[in-house]
Write a structure and sequence with these properties.
Oligomer: heterodimer
Shape of chain B: globular
Number of domains of chain A: 1
Largest sheet of chain A: none
Structural class of chain A: mainly alpha
Largest interface: A-B, 35 and 36 residues
Helix content of chain A: 55-70%
Order of helices and strands of chain A: HHHHHHHHHHHH
CATH superfamily of chain B: Cytochrome-c3 Hydrogenase, chain B
Strand content of chain B: 5-15%
Structural class of chain B: alpha+beta
Number of helices of chain A: 12
Largest sheet of chain B: 3 strands, antiparallel
Amino acid sequence: MTPLPDAVVGAIAGVALLLTVVGLVTYVTLLERKFAARMQSRVGPYRVGWHGILQPIADAVKLMMKEDIVPREADRRIFNLAPVVFLVPCLLIFATIPFAPGLGVADLNIGILFFLAVSSMEIVGLFMAGWSSNNKYALISAMRAVNQIISYDLPFLLAALIPVLLTGSLRLSDIASAQSGLWFIAYPVLGQLGFLAFVIASVAAENRVPFDILEAESELVAGFRVEYSGMKFALIQLGEYAHVLGTSFLGALLFLGAWAGPGPEWLGPVWFLAKALFMFLVITWIRWSFVRIRVDQILQISWKLLLPLTMLLVMATAIAVVWRGAPGV
Amino acid sequence: MAADSTSTVVKELDYTGAERLSMNMGPQHPSAHGVFRAILTLEGETVVGVDAVIGYLHRCHEKLAENLAYVQYPSIASKTDYVAAMASELAYVMAAERLANFEVPKRAQYLRVLVGELQRVASHCLWLGTWCMDMGGALGGGATIFLYCIRERELVLDLFESLTGARLLYGFHQVGGVRYDVPEGWASECRTTVDLIEQRILEYEEMLEGNAFFMMRTQGVGVISRELALDVGISGPLLRASGVDCDLRRLAPYSSYEDFEFRVPVETAGDCYARYKVRMVEFRESIRIVRQILDGLPEGPISSRPGVKSLAQVRVPKGETYARVEGPRGEVGCYLQADGGPKPYRMKWRGASFSNLAILPHIIPGHGVADVVAIMGSVDPVFGEVDR
């Protein structure tokens, strides 16, 4: 049998990854709901299937059957396009993540740059949704979104640069294999501070409580997606969780050693998934224990605290690498 | 599109950034606390004007009172402020008793204080939960606190249920006394409940005050100065958080409040955090009063009047009076005018939430949209009482 052309292999891998990610994202919502329920001394979803195991499927079916409403005064074309524009970058970020040595769709030599660039593109879809809804809540939310993305993408990027400097490569698989000995979070001082900054910036970049000023349901009802219903709402929701999960994978890759772990080599992806879910649960834990902060306070934290801190960290890391004469832990 | 219909079209060249946007918050809004409509005028995110629209929940309570006998209305009075039903019932029966010169037995007076203080605990539980939910979101940390608080409120409601058979609207008071005596074993159950709640309040304080974001959202937000507080005529925890030592339980004791030892918390900052602090102390002081009553509940009848046999059973001589009690939200007053018959001639409520709500247009302008909900929540309005 002749080997399949590269394009076909790539396509098959892409579709497989897409389905896996969508399935994973659906079940991550159940994980979050169960986790939040435990925090709040409740039971959580319980009725659909064993311990609510079929709940995400029931939710998806429900959303598909809902009426699709487009407000009369909305900009119809942009309104319909926005969920897709929002979803695509959120799913695209998974393309460069290597789930095990050699197991990934595209191991680009600028992998991390691709990830950061694509993940900040979601703002386009978000702003389109907010603007075209012709709703004041949605408009304010869209404005807040732009504000927040501008202020938090910089610290996010700088925090992600620390492992890059320590590795000396932008390729994600190189960063992962550089941690086979010691994870970057174990790097004295720089690793821990970098990880902390990364977590804070990623919570903000994902628009989760306490930085969820875009959604802010107690002020702006549901923010930019207030007018969306049915499947379009589901797409936005899917995109949001995919983004959270993608960032969790990135965090696990950059700081927690990706697939490194005890046991045989085939356990690598399992370790990676476990670490990513740990990152996800940390973010969930933050989400369900804090109150939301105000727009101006968010900007203050970003520009006055997080940005200088991450800049200093990047500089310190660079100095450390130069001083030691070689990258690596 | 989003611009106010009255404002002119934005001209990009001489745009000053001061264009105004009017935004409707409510009557159907996640943090409208019922049915409150605030028409906000915004410049960017800053609120420059608030128009409050109320009346969506008007049920003609005062007219109803003219058509219901003195034996009937107490169980309707509880529907004005449905979060703290015991307070408004008490105000009504106190007004009728004062006019008719009915004596209230000591045991009934103590029982009235007992349920009043338990009601304060239950009401403050709901306030803390909803307020945190306003700030933290139903999909965030606010919901966590909300569910904790509701869990404790349920315990108090369980007590009320075994006492009166109802969980929300009780009909516990009657002219001349109270309707129900405490059942067997209730006192020890009550003791365990308040012990548990006192412990849980500590947990909330740790969770909230140790949270930098909570402090950022509440300190210095929505400051009510002492002068403004007195001018507008707010009452209750709001007034005490602005440095005015005013508590009717202390200033004009009713129903034997002078028999109990308790502290009236006063804060001077006047911001959301001060109001939070005042209410957190009130939780404990209420529990303290409850314990004192359980320790020394006098024996005797629970009412100076017989049980209800007919509608015309209670007749009040001609005259008028004003009775007031310190409800969880402030002064709940009942003005009653009687003409000698079995029904009042006129009745007027002084709702604490109604007067407190008048402070909003004074303190909201200058804050952001996010602070509007924080301030609203700290005022703790109940719209059943505002609209009546």
